[in-house]
Amino acid sequence: MHVAAVTPNLIQLRRFGAVNCWLVRDDDGFTLVDTGLGGGAKGTVAAAAAAGAPIVRVLLTHAHSDHVGSLDALARLLPDVEVGISARDARFLAGDRSFDPGECDKERGAWTTTKTVPTLALEHGVRVGSLEVIATPGHTPGHRSFRDTRDGTVIGGDVLTTFGGVHVTSHPNRRFPLAYYGTANRPLDLSSAAAIAALDPTGLAVGHGPFVPQPAPQLAEAIARAHAALRD
Fold this sequence. Notes:
The protein is of the alpha/beta class. The chain has a single domain (2-231), classed as 4-Layer Sandwich (Metallo-beta-lactamase, Chain A). Helices cover 26% and strands 26% of the residues. The chain has helices at residues 41-50, 65-68, 71-77, 87-93, 178-181, 186-198, 216-231; strands spanning 2-7, 10-15, 19-26, 29-33, 55-59, 82-85, 120-121, 127-128, 131-135, 144-148, 153-155, 160-161, 167-168, 203-205, 212-213. The strands form 3 sheets. A 7-stranded mixed β-sheet has the order 1-2-3-4-5-6-7. Strands 8-9-10-11-14-15 form a 6-stranded mixed β-sheet, with no helix packed on it. A two-stranded antiparallel sheet has the order 12-13. A hairpin with a 2-residue loop joins strand 3 (19-26) and strand 4 (29-33). Helix 1 (41-50) crosses helix 3. The longest helix has 16 residues, at 216-231. The radius of gyration is 16 Å and the shape is globular.
């Protein structure tokens, strides 16, 4: 696991060169955003300990297996940890793979049923520690992003990828196409990318790719490319 502090409050945990989790430092400990693929729990807990605080909550951007794969193992290591996800994507965690009308034209993405039952329903606009929950559906119906209210950093899950620059997952990034293939509703994902851009983030952290400081110009270019791709 590669561990790197990218802001005073944010630590990137990267595995296999492509899958990110994020530790957000808060007054009561760390919030972990996403858990990555299976097998990462011990390394994640060790990274938090090395940074000087325990993990007190886990917030999930969405329910794909590369974001929740270590959830059960983390819950065993941290029995008091809070776990948050949208009520919509909690259905996927529980094993319900169905989509509601209009959410998706066919099932996309890889899913993992977990034994861990979420304790927090992440509704748009609520605050969890220093993070504001932002509804960003499209990649999955209940996808969530998080805005750090202290410095304006946005953790955007799989709305975007950042290998070779910022890309909206409504169309493929040649450097990392898997997020595109897992996107359930591509026009809605593009709308969510625009919602993130409207927040004017000071930094952009995503599930796949490097941290991008001051991402506004790249976000604007990525959204324009995505609009053009959907029209073609």
